[in-house]
Amino acid sequence: MNSYVRSLATVTQAACAALEAVGKAPRRGKEPDPEGPLTTPVSPDPGATRDDANSLTLYCLAHAGGSAIPYTRWNRFLPAGVRVEPLELPGHGARLREPLLEQVEPIVADLLRTVGPRRGAPFALFGHSFGAVLAFELTRRLVRLGTPPAALLVAGRNGPTQPLAHRPIHNLDDEAFVAALIRFGGMPQALLEQPELLRIYLPVLRVDLRLAETHPRPPGPPFDVPVTAFGGRRDVLADPEGLLTWERETTGEFELALLPGGHFFLDEPAFHSLLLSRLARLTPRATGNDPLSRGTTPAARR
Questions:
Q1: Which position among 263, 272, 277, 293 bears the catalytic label?
Q2: pLDDT digits (tens, 9 = 90+) for 51-94
Q3: Nearest to 77 by CA among 285, 282, 290, 275
Q4: Catalytic residue list contains 263
Q5: Is 128 an active-site residue?
Q6: What is the pTM of this model?
C-alpha cells in the first residue's frame, strides 16, 4: 500500500465522521486575511523547554487532497532529536469539517498560525507535490518575518518557475477528472466504490489541484535557506531537470536526491535513508555534528 492510499485512509475516516456530523461536503467559507495577525514574530511554542531547545521540528505538508497525519509514522525511524508535526489544511483529513480555502495566500496565513515564526526552536519544512508549493510559499513568508526554517525539503514537484509536466486536469468534468487521477495512480479502488466518500473527496482534491496547476511563482529574490529536492526517476509529474531548478530559489546549500519509483515514494526505505542523512546535518544533538557545516553534497544529479 503506497503513501497516497494510506493518506486517503485518514481522509476516509475523517469523511465518515463528517458525514455523520453534518451530512455534507466541506464548506467553503470566508478566507482569512492572508497577511493575518502574524506580521511580527511570536513567542516560541509554550510547550518547548530548555531540554528540547536543540530538537528539530519537521513540519510536513501533504500532496493534493491528502492528509498530513500519516507523516507522524516517520517518528518511528527518526532520531530522538527530530519530531514530526503534520500541517493539516482546512477541509482536509482531521480538519475536514472546516471550510476549504481556495487560494494559496490564505492557506499560508492559516499555516503561519500553527508554525508561527519561532525563536530559539529549530524547525524545517517538508512538502510533497502540492505540499511543496505551500512549503515554498510558507518559507518565503517566514524569511520575510525574519525567522526562516533551518531547511526546506521538497518532493515530487518541479521548481516554482517550471511549467506543468502534464495537461491541467482540475477543470475536467467528474468522470474525466477521476479517469485522469486513475492514470496518475492517485485514486484507489476502495474510494471509487464508496460514492458518498467520493462526493466529499473530489471537491477537496479539485481545489488543491487547481492551485497546484495554476499558482504562479510570485516575484521575489531567492532566499538563504538550504533546499533539498527529492524525486522519483519514473515520476510523470516531476522530472530531474525540473527538480534541479529548485536550486534557483536559494542562495544557500542545495541538494538533489533521486530515487527509484514514481510520484509516491515517501514510504520507501531508500527515501527514509536519504531523509535521515539530510536531517542529520540539521540536528547536532542527535548526531554530534554542527548543522549545515558540510556544504553542498548532491546525492544524485542524474
A1: 263
A2: 455 689 999 999 999 999 999 999 999 988 899 999 999 999 99
A3: 275
A4: yes
A5: no
A6: 0.78
